[in-house]
Design goal:
By secondary structure, the protein is an alpha+beta fold. It contains twelve helices and eleven strands. A six-stranded antiparallel beta sheet has the order 1-2-5-10-7-8, with no helix packed on it. It has a five-stranded antiparallel beta sheet with strand order 3-4-11-6-9. It is elongated, with a radius of gyration of 28 Å.
Amino acid sequence: MRPVPLPFGHRVSADATRPLELARTTLHDLALCTVASPLGGPFTVDEPAEDWLLVGVLAGRLALQRDGGGAPTVLACGEARLVDGAALRGGTLDAATRLVSLTLAPSVLRRFLADALDAPVVERIAFRDEPLGRDLSALVCGLCTSWIDGAAPDGGQPGRERVGQALRQALLAALLHGTDHGYGERLAGRARPSVLPGLVKRATAHMQAHLGSAALDVEALAGAAGVSVRTLQLNFKRLHGCSPMQHLRTLRLQAVRQALLQAGDGASVAEIAARHGFTHLGGFAAHYRAAFGELPRQTLARAPRSAEPCAAGPGAADQRA
């Protein structure tokens, strides 16, 4: 037996005389892997992981041995199952077996579920120990293998990042809505909410932290929220009635107004606007007036000024006007 990077834990040992064909990739914070075993054979998990593992058999048969002994859990071709990585101890691959595995870290599951529930999720999600239904198995295994098979060696396909964000959302949503777990009733009670406030909050926090970056765009916001651009746009539209970039502009305008009202001597509208990400002063002034009913220079004129020294001699008042 020698260590090989099978997707069943941090360290797995398998028979060195029985070669395995592996294909591994990532889907943002998810790890995917396909394993082909032409000759089959046993393997043991030396260092179990705390992750949940989605294991689907594409061809052949897989038997998994878990804590407590007893009969192994057998997965035939076309079947998939969520397996607790912490309890997995080993198993056997039949000859000509091919399988796909998706590694789900507890933190990823908690974060996605918290977004769906709009409430903190502290406890580890416990899935019921049963196989997935046929339709769900076919869906998630098909999505995983399509992503792995479509990966270019350099990972440079145009648009693959955005497609990956949408695929990640679809996989996690399908698993959490299509399986039984401790949060199932609460999740069902929300009837698959069309708005995920958590992802909007993450995108908004990223906006607040980068108000001065003129290069901030919707792709960067979607990346910070961990979703596709389309998903981000739909959630902002439903929650705020506007696009993410329109919401960003509103935040910037509010910040500029606050800065203008607190500006000291020598401050200029152009400098303050540029500091908050506005590069086109004409468009900025129009948006500002539409939002606040006055021009930026009018707001600046109301800012408190330091006391001017008394001027001596006639004509001093005329010089101050």
